[in-house]
Design goal:
3 helices
Length: about 90
Amino acid sequence: MELIKTLRVNNDLGLHARCAAKIVALAAQYRARLFLKKGEHEVDGSSILSLLTLACPKGTEVQVRLDGEDAELLMDALTGLFAQKFGE
């Protein structure tokens, strides 16, 4: 199953290393593959460095694409993580 959703980075510091690490750790708990896209640049969501190359300050919208059997569960968890501003 493939799911696509647009999420907004709302925390003050944007998508920095600590946030990227939380995304990667969350994705590792699921079988679905995670990709994030900003503009035309799509990266593998299982790599902190790849996520950082997106350069997402506060207010940036990223497209989340998930592919796999538990994609819905991971999408719910990611949506919550973004909504909670990565716990910051």
